[in-house]
Amino acid sequence: MNTSVIVAGLCAGAALILWPSPTWLLCRITSHSGDRSESVGAPDRPDDPFTVAAALDLFAVCLRSGLPVETAAQIVAASAPETLAELLGTAADLLTLGADSDHAWTMAADRIGEAGGGAEYCRSLATLVRRSSRAGASLSAGVGELADTIRHRAEDRALEKAERAGVAISGPLGLCFLPAFVCLGIVPVVVGLAGGVFSGTL
């Protein structure tokens, strides 16, 4: 009895010594938070295309309601994905300061390219706005078509990935089920026939 009490006391003491202190836990939390804050502004993954399409639909709705381009861009930038929000926010700021539409959207698209965003839809949207400002065409209709194009491309890519996954998984599944089929379906029949032949019943 005394030995068990002593062992339990030693284990409890070791646990208290090895248990992480609140300061150590706080250091872990603050270090991870700092790493996360430093990574903001450099997304590892591209924006979700369906979210981008929804933001462009909102941009088209704002334009159809009669809002100026810079006002609509500011509204959409508040809830748009990061790359698109940067494009719209930069262009809206330049337009508010009195910059020409062609110059504002060109600078905004170039900034996205320099930042490494590489978003194709940002360049397409900037080109669309520049053409609309030059020719006087309906910008809302073009933005809506761009949203539909992005959505359809994303659906096609998702379907293509699903088909590739189905083809890739057929090989491992075949390797798993074929031995089981042979062992459970063919081997018992062959053994039964062989047993009948050797016993003289067949």
From TrEMBL:
<keyword id="KW-1003">Cell membrane</keyword>
<keyword id="KW-0812">Transmembrane</keyword>
<dbReference type="InterPro" id="IPR018076">
    <property type="entry name" value="T2SS_GspF_dom"/>
</dbReference>
<feature type="transmembrane region" description="Helical">
    <location>
        <begin position="177"/>
        <end position="198"/>
    </location>
</feature>
<protein>
    <submittedName>
        <fullName>Type II secretion system protein F</fullName>
    </submittedName>
</protein>
<keyword id="KW-1133">Transmembrane helix</keyword>
<dbReference type="Pfam" id="PF00482">
    <property type="entry name" value="T2SSF"/>
</dbReference>
<keyword id="KW-0472">Membrane</keyword>
<feature type="domain" description="Type II secretion system protein GspF">
    <location>
        <begin position="56"/>
        <end position="183"/>
    </location>
</feature>
